[in-house]
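W.,

You were right to be curious about this one. When I first looked at the sequence I had no strong expectations either way, so I just let the prediction run and decided to look at it fresh. Below is the sequence, 243 residues in total, followed by the output.
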Amino acid sequence: MRLWKDNIFFILVEPREPGNIGACARAIKNMGFKNLELINPAPFLTPEAKRMACNASDLLEKATVWTQLNNALKDKNLVIGTTRRVGKRRGLILPLKESVEKIVAASQKNKVAILFGREDKGLNNKEVEECGLLIIIPSDPLLPSLNLAQSVLLVAYELGVKTYNLPYPSLVKHEELENLYSHINSVLKLLEYIPKGNRDIEKRIMRNLKHLIGRGGLTEWEMRMIHGICSQIEKRLRISNIE
């Protein structure tokens, strides 16, 4: 039987410090998790990284390495990012403690990706757009940015000490949502809801839709329903144009 912790994936985006990567592996294993994925990392199987990983060198050696974030997210059902910055472009942001129940519940039947950004500048705007939800770890405003390994440990701890038995539906994969977003985009253009040639408004609308849908994910039935609505709109518009 697959445990819910096996469905949590800690994904580090372009980490630069081998020692940090090793410390993250240790933090993950300390709290009973095992999935570490790295996006375009610096060389990390170094003596320093293994020393910081301590007895979690096995996680370090088995870490999945990707060159592109979108490839890592294809088979994930829910994507959550970590941030210290807030703003309208960043969608819904919850304090860590308030997000734990949702993450644990979702992971009963779904693969959940938790993204951690670069040591010096975190996740960029494009990466944030892939996230349905952002979580923030409250800290002192005089020095709000935490070390990467500290952030991973705090998230893993909050998740690891909680035990829930909450119902949560199976969700479609991130890759399937991308196809849905393309379908919605084409329909909105046909309806002229997205002004022709206005890329700024188009990006803003699609970013907000991604945050809205990605926040809780979609079941297979919900996704088919939205595809069906879009297809029916396309059909009616074609008939209207013929008439």
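Here's what jumped out at me. Strands lie at 8-13, 36-39, 64-66, 78-83, 93-95, 112-116, 133-136. And, maybe more interesting for your project: The radius of gyration is 20 Å.

Coffee later to discuss?

I.
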